[in-house]
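In this supplementary section we document a worked example of the pipeline. Step one takes a protein sequence of length 533 as its only input; no multiple sequence alignment statistics are reported here. Step two produces a three-dimensional model, which step three serialises into structure tokens for compact storage. The input and output of this example are shown verbatim.
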Amino acid sequence: MKVGAYLGNQAHAPANSWTALISAYTGGASVLHFATRLTADRRIVLAQADDVAAATGTEGRIGAMSLAALRQLDFSQRFTPRGSASGDFNYFDPTVEGRPFALDALDEIVSELPRDVDWLIEIRPEDAADAVAELLRSRGALSRSVLALETKAAIARCKTRFPTVRTALVLPAEQPLPDTAPAGCEVLVVPVERFWRDGGWTSDAQRFCQRQGNSYFPLGAQLASAATEYPGMLAAAKSAGWVWGVCLGSTFDFAALRPSFVHVDESFAGTAVDRTRFALGYAKANGFATVTWNDGIHIAIAPYTGELPRSSGDGIERRLSRIEWDLIDVARQWPFYSGGGVGLVAGIADDFAAEVSYRVKEVGQATTLEMAVLNVDPGAHRGAPPASFRDKDSFYDPHGAPPYVGVEHDEDDGFRINWNLGSEYDNNQYGRPVGDGRTARGAEIRLERRGAYFAAYYRNPVDADGDVLHPRDWVCVGVARNDTLNRTLYLRCVGKRWRQEKADDPSQYEPILANEFTFRNLRVTCFPPIDGE
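The serialised model returned by step three reads:
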């Protein structure tokens, strides 16, 4: 039985988006179930409903709007994560302009979608089926796709032009179960509620089971729902034999079905560093940061009392000061740049999900924390602040030692994914910050890997008083594909502060903050390949 998330992980990211689909994939989905529509300028986009108001809060219809016009709308405007009520959470900070969650075009993402799982694609209107199939064929993806249409006539037309394509019949809630399947149609797509109710199979499900065979829907039924609360249904579907797949609102609800083992489960209690599994280290060679294991990993960064570039004095003094700081910039040895953290000595060789909780004393510009994975190992443990440049290691530098992928609390902007595909620090890439980064003084963050794909999450932020805020369940803050990372990766939890120009006046600088970061409760769960794969 295939499992996945209906329209992607819509309990954790805006439905039917690239983010939601890759979140479902890293969460273990064996089928990606999504929907497409046709815009007024004949672009195929990832959308289920023609009316955009439910997603964007703005009146309009996809079939009557161009892709350019649709991309002016925020398709995360009405997104509410599981466990939150409307108004408790904003995906993007509404006070920050220029952050619409754009609609995805199929031709722009089709080559980036994972190729080791099936794609079940609902197509509306049905006259777009040929365009979707031709696009998939041109990108070498038609054989892994199942095209889902709502009428027998549309399926017949599609099979005439593309005889080998797999097709599915989408059964609206009000239509009776068909007596026969359309010729060559393999799957029946039905709402879960149509086949499962009150803890058992409905009469429709029983009739489907009785008719099941090569002359009906050979692959079986695909059960789909945005909801997640169906006690007992997964176990019953797995043993039914006639269920091709189940897609609910969240792949987190399928976690128990994935073979797994715990790679690390560490609270960081006590004061003794477990050097068989962890190493502490520093991002820069200055004495302002102290990293300790003391009922948590603490990165304490003292107030900056060192030199700053001079803007006064005679001309020679100013020139010498500028040359000195130019050399510091070239060497990246900024004395006001301090930080460090903990590294996991044991590499992670499988797909995984890593979670850690953190607290931070101050939030503001030029201070950030990160959990990331990268190719290099933590190097030598440093039990004391650095005494020379040999005591620093870019492994402990947030955004350092690329390539990498991470999840971070970005300054006071929010939570985001960050990554680098190469070896230059200047090639770092960042997703747009999600949620409220100003209020949170702590949260839980999560990073998932499956193959070359990664998804980043956060939940349960707390304010300065320790009160838990929304979201209470995981929200996906971004996804990335990174083919430059090794099979075995090494994990770090790190924090830092630096000196940063003000956005509205680059000649002025933000305050250089003293700060303290604390990491606790690191858990890494691995998902090994099934024996024989």
